[in-house]
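Suppose you are handed only these lines of text.
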Amino acid sequence: MDAHLLDELRQIVGPRGLITSHEELHTYDTDALTNIRVLPQAVLLPSSTEQVQAILRLCHRERLPFVARGAGTGLSGGALPVADGIVISLARMNRILEVDLPNARVTVEPGVINLDVTARVAPQDYFYAPDPSSQSICSIGGNVAENSGGAHCLKYGFTTTHVLGLEVVLPDGTLIHLGGKTLDAPGYDLLGVFVGSEGTLGIATKMILRIVKRPECVQTLLAAFPSTNEAGAAVSSMIAAGMLPSAIEMMDRLSIQASEAAVHANYPMCGALLLVELDGPVAEVAALMADVNKICREHAAEEIRLAQSDTERALVWKGRKAAFAAMGRISPNYIVQDGVIPRTALPRVMSEIDQLSQEAGLRVANVFHAGDGNLHPMVLYDQRIPGQEHAAEALSSKILEICIAAGGSITGEHGVGEDKKKMMSKMFAEPDLATMQRVRCAFDPYNLSNPTKVFPTPRLCGEKPGEYKPHPAEISGSADRF
Ligand SMILES: Cc1cc2nc3c(=O)[nH]c(=O)nc-3n(C[C@H](O)[C@H](O)[C@H](O)COP(=O)(O)OP(=O)(O)OC[C@H]3O[C@@H](n4cnc5c(N)ncnc54)[C@H](O)[C@@H]3O)c2cc1C
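From them, the structure of the protein bound to flavin-adenine dinucleotide can be written out as follows.
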């Protein structure tokens, strides 16, 4: 990178806020999708909104691409650097700026760790509801950019439900404010557009979050089933009965084995395990738990157990939240997928995944946010065996195609990023993608903010409607998903 430009960047963030050494840059060459790595030109660590603005003004002047980075736990390559650009890490902007309990609002900087928000308001019996399994390490900025979910989003809603306002630096350095402390701002819902935009529209430098009062009572039930078919049918029956548990999670046999090896949560060894959590007033939880019990028995549950203490409940969740990492116990390598299907399609989709797994000769472990129909198939492979990595990638793409064919989606919560942009044209028709691109161009006309991500082919801003010539692969997208 040009030495003069580096000097200008150094002046903005100070010498300790700029990383250029080859060795240190390697720390930032990937996120949790570790099979793709790119070395950036430099990494900047701003400590204020003003510094972010100054950096983006320079990027705009020099047409220098940039990638925002939170904690780098993303699973779709969203924070993967671009080789001709810089990474802007928000890790130093990690202050909780305001706790407004009477209005149940918290204002934070983007580098604040998800679980730290709850830790701050827990003494007053509040919590921040979106709970990705990575919540002890991922940042709120990353959560906002990915619209992250978690086990308890079934009842409480994804990140987008809990973000009320954002301060955003646009790719030319302009500061804007989207939403605010009150609900339902007039005008276009640009806050909704930004949440889940995966770093392609600018950098969020402040967020106003909604916090929630702790329920009077929480109970967690474990139910062991012969297979995912019976467990899936039990989930559909619960939802059809009008229940809204705070979480319904499912793990298949392989996932249970891996989690047990890592965490010793004392899970029953079975074909499929359901974790059902209910919260609310004591009497309501007791009544609903009796109904959940009955439904599980009606669907051939082999064992049903209620966690007896907060410690036991915490261990049950520790096992579930460690499920991805635990795969290391049973396989040297794995790819985590993130498809969504209608809940009722679960038996059919599971049997198709099983069939593909047998054909490819690769094991697939499954954990699900079952209440949301969000599957996390994990394709297990051994990188040392020639051809296996490629076969695993092909299998995981086929699994997403099954999800689309079932009326679902290629991502429930992990985002498109670098990894799944090739699948976008299978899900969206060209006019859909072109319209998304026009939104992107309105924020970022020079395509500087996390370029090359989310969209299947490089697109420029400035084509008039109808002028864009799609890549042939994009034409196969289906417009009749509705
Ligand atoms: C073990 C494990 C379990 C996981 N479990 C879940 C889960 O249950 N649910 C779930 O949803 N995800 C889960 N994830 C994925 C990941 O943790 C989430 O996507 C998380 O929100 C990423 O946060 P991060 O701070 O690490 O962001 P990063 O990975 O650093 O970045 C993610 C994206 O956000 C953009 N970005 C970051 N900060 C900003 C900002 N301030 N402004 C604009 N764009 C920004 C980046 O450019 C990138 O595109 C899991 C990951 C792991 C490793």
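What can we learn from it? The first strand starts at residue 18 and ends at 19. Confidence is low (pLDDT under 50) at residues 470-481.
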